[in-house]
Amino acid sequence: MGYIVLPEASKKIALLGATGSIGRSTLDIVSRFPERYQVVAMGGGKNVSELISLARRFRPQLLSVQEESGASELTMALKDSGLSIPVMVGQPGAVAVATCPQADIVVAAMVGAVGLEPAHAALAAGKDVALANKESMVMAGRLLNQVAASTGAAILPLDSEHSAIWQALNGEPKKGVEKLILTASGGPFREFSLAEMAQVTPAQAMRHPRWQMGPKITIDSATMMNKALEIIEARWLFDIVPERIEVLVHPQSIVHSLVEYVDGSVLAQLGLPDMRLPVAYALGYPERLALDLPKLDLAAIGQLDFIRADVKRFPALRLVRKALEAGDSGAIAFNAANEVAVERFRQGEIGFLEISETVEKALNMVVREDFSTLTEILDFDVRVRQLLL
Fold first, then answer.
1. CATH number, domain 161-273+301-387, options 1.10.1740.10, 1.10.10.410, 3.10.20.90, 1.10.8.60
2. Using CA atoms, how far apart are residues 265 and 258, in angstroms rounded to an integer?
3. What CATH code would you report for 11-157?
4. What confidence tens digit (pLDDT) does each residue in 254-282 have?
5. Pairing state of beta strands 87-89 and 62-65?
6. Residue 178 neighbours by CB distance under 10 Å
7. Could you tell me where the DSSP H helices lie in the chain?
8. Does the predicted TM-score (pTM) go above 0.85?
């Protein structure tokens, strides 16, 4: 009996955040192109049951889970399935996934500041990083760019907005760029009064009108903190001064972002709100993958609206400018305070409008300071969180 020799996958993937929305989109693309992609390492959070299912399906060489109890459950389930896959825990586990020797590219889709250390480790190991963890660039954009330059690794944008800008830039000379325009859906409360927003519950904030996302990102969209974070991320991804980055509210979420050039031309990337599109672009780059997905029908949509962002209703867009003026310490404090406040809001400890108030409080406490090492950045992040306790 002869053996069937399968062609070697052209690209081996380490996936962080496998059980989140970006992780699921990534695995969907991998499933559509099994001859091109193979998942060799996989990390998840607390959704152990889903990670067990994914491990059985994709059979990576290494797994990571957030908590020790989850590791025990995962190990037992794999043993029952006849699989012997090493399971690691916490940040050391995430870093091990990010630096898996077999991986060609790391999809960094963890949520929050915990994603910074693995992203840094991947770049330091010379691995390209498809980055959906915007907090990494917010906290350490300068440092990550320096590490990538030193190892020859690439940082590939996975956020739909930054992927759109990447596509609209498409090799154009930097000197020809006038500004970047990030689009925002406006979330579920873009027409609420401040009095109505003060009464918003966590359940209401979790209902996004366009995108299916995790709880933290969905609430960030409702406050437009996500767009504020994306301003900082774009500043570092595309090496452009913050003053040349703007936000437009676009309720239909069809135009994912735009680039205005010095001659007045504006290039935009359009598509249905489906994260599989930017994931496929990053994984296939510079080639575009032929996707059998619903296609954009502009005639059926009929109308695209654009509205100036209201900084009174969404103070995050004002506060981010203050954070940028305060350098690294401002950006780190902005992100840390938002993470603390979102969790308190989810637990019912503070109101919806108090999320922005918490961020402003943190910014008022920091003095401008820039950092040159990962340890300095992580230490400052901890100090900010402690001040808010």
1. 1.10.1740.10
2. 10
3. 3.40.50.720
4. 999 999 999 999 999 999 999 999 999 99
5. parallel
6. 14
7. 21-32, 48-58, 68-80, 90-98, 116-124, 134-151, 160-169, 194-198, 202-205, 215-223, 225-237, 276-284, 298-301, 316-325, 327-346, 354-365, 374-387
8. yes
